[in-house]
Design a protein that fits this description.
single chain; 5-stranded mixed sheet; 260 residues; 10-stranded mixed sheet; 7 helices
Amino acid sequence: MTSIKIFRPCEELFLNLAKNNSSFGVLLLNSPVKLNNIKLRKIWNQANIRVLVDGGSECWMNWKENLNKKKDDLYMPHLLTGDFDSISTETLEKLKKINGVQVIHTPDQEETDFTKALEILNDYKEQKKIEIDKIYVLTEIAGRLDHLMANINTLYRSESILPNTSVFLLCSDSFSWLLKPGTYKISIPEILRENKNWCSLVPIGSPAVVTTSGLKWNLDKTKLEFGGLISTSNSYNGSAEVEIETSSCLLWTMSTRGLL
């Protein structure tokens, strides 16, 4: 019998975080913080491992300063890592002086800061014997296209860096992660179905034969590939779950409009 993996990330992250007993890490990439600050603060503060990636430290400092004006606060990061080409000397020195923040310079230009940060996070969790099953990467899908493609490539490689750990790209208006070959059920909150929010399935690395249920435009053993069909701008048919069977890796992306 085929094993079905169930994803309920929207409920876990946006609706029931206080009740969620899973252990997770958070990475902040070099991207402005545009998510709802109350929910985002909760995600950051409840994380078992908190990582600033290079210029993400500047975004974090600005976020922290704005929260302090509201008499709220953020927990300190555990790690700051990157090649440090996007962080000011002033911010770097400030973070170096904070007790408990490990600053790890990764000058290797053969890898992106995101990829290297996942490797550093993996080393840290092994050293500290911290169990995590998810990583939420705070970023925005905007700006340079090559940065976006590099982030997707890191998602594609993440299984080899952090086995048995799901890595999610969390933006202000969307949620994305990789589906490896297999069968999945993804829970879709009612508000996303009512809003007829968009979703998409994009093959990554190689063509994929895909069968779905729960979508407005379902696939039936359909081959998805660049140069042929890819399922962008899809939506839901009202079902509480979308089921996806894929022969190869897919990038699943869904709008979160209405949850924030």
